[in-house]
Amino acid sequence: MSLEEGLNFTQELIVEDTNTAIAHGSGKLPVFATPAMVAFMENTAVKCIENGLDKGLDTVGIQIDTKHIKATKVGKKVTCTATLTKVDGKKLTFQIEATDEDGPIGSSLHKRYIIDPIKFMERA
């Protein structure tokens, strides 16, 4: 594996109606939903490390501590950056930051665990 602390990945999305609190059932306003932001953050972490894992391995999320500090309207661009901050055996820790065109909107401390998908599914 080639997973080193400091590895990072950035991706963007444009907030659409399907990303809103209304669509996710987490509120009644047409703004970027917290569940949508969390999913986007987790996906950014997954993409950050996907090329560094040994063949046949995968990761699962085991913890996410998120702050959503600002609303983002439909049509605005959201940028998310995940940085691998700690590699502790099979446990990976990420710091994740999300911004829109006006500045920071959220952050997360996220942990993932490296697994063998076949063995994992046998135990599930």
Could you characterize the architecture of this molecule?
This protein is an alpha+beta fold and 124 residues long. It has a single domain (8-123), classed as Roll (Thiol Ester Dehydrase, Chain A). 22% of the residues lie in helices and 43% in strands. The chain is built from 3 helices and 5 strands, in the order E-H-H-E-E-E-E-H. Strands 1-3-4-5-2 form a 5-stranded antiparallel beta sheet. Strand 3 (77-88) and strand 4 (91-100) form a beta hairpin. The longest helix is centred in the middle third of the chain and has 16 residues, at 34-49. The protein starts with 7 loop residues before the first strand and ends with a helix. 25% of the residues are buried. It comes from Ancylomarina salipaludis. Pfam families: FlK. Residues 15-116 form the Fluoroacetyl-CoA-specific thioesterase-like domain.
What's the helix and strand layout?
Elements: E1 8-14, H1 21-24, H2 34-49, E2 58-68, E3 77-88, E4 91-100, E5 103-115, H3 117-123
Antiparallel strand pairs: 1-3, 2-5, 3-4, 4-5
Binding site for substrate: 61, 112
Binding site for CoA: 61
GO molecular function: acyltransferase activity
